[in-house]
Amino acid sequence: MPLEIIKPASCLAVVAGGCWFTDLGRRFARYQEHGGISWCGWDGEVVTAAYPRHGRPNGIGLSHDGRTLYVVQNRDNKVSVVALGKGLASGTIVRTI
Length: 97
What we know:
Layout: E1 8-14, E2 18-27, E3 32-41, E4 46-51, E5 59-62, E6 68-73, E7 78-84, E8 91-96
Antiparallel strand pairs: 1-2, 2-3, 3-4, 5-6, 6-7, 7-8
């Protein structure tokens, strides 16, 4: 299912068919639309991958073995650790540092 992208921030290319990216979301005077962590295949289809609305992620990194994403949220002073699923195009947040 295609996902509305609000404000993409960081992008991490992965050889296995696409790239991960963070979406900052939007802030308004009275509310905020949260961002997320998403996957985009080389065909251009964007899907929610790890967590659809996850604060304001603005940095992303990949472990050396390619199985774990690290997502930075500067505003909250946190790093989310995301275990990637088979095929690397999906994942689950397993802890927050």
